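Closing statement on the pyridoxal-5'-phosphate sub-project.
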Amino acid sequence: MAQIGPADGFETLAIHAGQEPDSQTGAVVPPIYQVSTYKQDGVGGLRGGRLAGSAAGPGRWIEGYEYSRTANPTRGALEECLAALESGARALAFSSGMAAEDCLLRTVCRPGDHVLIPHDAYGGTYRLFDKVMGEWGVTYHPVPVSDPAAVRAALAEHQAKLVWVESPTNPLLSVADIAALAQLAHSAGALLAVDNTFASPYLQQPLVLGADAVVHSTTKYIGGHSDVVGGALVVADTGLAARLAFLQNATGSAAGPFDAWLTLRGVKTLAVRMDRHCRNAEQVAAMLANHPGHEVAAKQMRGFGGMVSFRHAGGEQDAVAMCGRTRLFTLGESLGGVESLIEHPGRMTHASAAGSPLEVPADLVRLSVGIENCDDLIEDLRAALG
Ligand SMILES: Cc1ncc(COP(=O)(O)O)c(C=O)c1O
């Protein structure tokens, strides 16, 4: 089989990067290596690894397999694929998006360090900064990341080690100009991390725009079928990659083989799913054309994604009632699966931000628009709106 390389298109990489047919059997899908340990050919004689920069691609950096916390071939296949899709040097797959975030923060930050975070970040990310990292002496400052002038001012005021960005944000869908923020962060001596969960690498590649690290909850669009929880980090710098891999192994937060396999199965259809998510979401939210982030999003994204958030004119009670009235939109947390979901962020996904500067509006409803028939979805929402 011809080698897969960076010149291949996104859809080709999604299906083939890290997934060449099994050398022994020819199986076209990487097997689930449900194994904890590996036979060694003499002490230290590890088998089967691939060296950095080999023809197999830059994503796999191990010299052999010894123990699955350190490296596992199924996880390695997923990591190689994700590195290719984000145009990164290396990817690491985790047991959840939060585990990936934790690994990045504890690799980059030390007690006394300061981080700028979105003033409308995902509630779990806020909780990690506010309730966990704070205990270890890492402080944070919320900033509207869609406003580069505000980020510049915050960087001048607080000496930050890291600028943490989501774009679009969860759940308010603010859009950050990633290239502009990369310049601002770097000129202040900070790194830029981008949580690319909402866009997915198909719609937006933060490393190409100058970010230092990409974070994913692969639970969402990358996995795409609401059947697995996972996370990933992708970086351009091999030194940073080695430090992340060290902590991942030292603390044991890697994805298991079956979860990695399920995620890799989802990745294969990411492009076609995202096209359909975008098309359906644009129809559900025709008003997106007037979204304040539209111009920047159009500059750095291939499409606008499948998430729609809106404030119910009837207030909190009507917003909550609507969430319980849909037929096809399932009431539930999470997002990015083929099936449509509806939720009330204030009482569900973002309850942990209640009473904080990151509290979301009480009348907010969030939709994860799936890939069902769009007329059916619109009819469902119309009926639920009453
Ligand atoms: C933007 C974003 N980042 C990170 C996470 C955390 O990922 P996980 O739930 O896989 O730990 C989520 C989860 O909803 C999210 O929406």
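The CA atoms of residues 81 and 264 lie 8 Å apart. With this model delivered, the sub-project is considered complete and its resources will be redirected to Aim 3.
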